[in-house]
Design a protein that fits this description.
Blueprint: E1 8-12, E2 18-22, H1 25-38, E3 39-42, E4 45-48, E5 53-57
Antiparallel strand pairs: 1-2, 1-5, 3-4
């Protein structure tokens, strides 16, 4: 929807504490999707490399559109 704040802050510190800060559920969902991309398989478990991590993200434009290719 137009006007929804999609920004978020995702932080993972040295103690593996994950913090997500978002003003809306849309921003929180984007943060969770980014977190899922950071998780990698490792032996019989999973891990996140290169911590600490800080990701601050927001859309470059305030609207989304659709393009039809004809």
């Amino acid at each position: 929807k137009l006007g929804i704040d999609e920004s978020y802050l995702l932080e993972i510190n040295e103690k593996n504490v994950i913090k997500i800060d978002a003003k809306t559920y849309v921003g929180a969902n984007h943060a969770i999707q980014s977190l899922k991309q950071l998780i990698r398989p490792y032996k019989n478990t999973y891990k996140i490399e290169n911590i600490p991590i800080k990701i601050k993200d927001s859309p470059g434009i305030t609207y989304r559109g659709t393009m039809l290719d004809t």
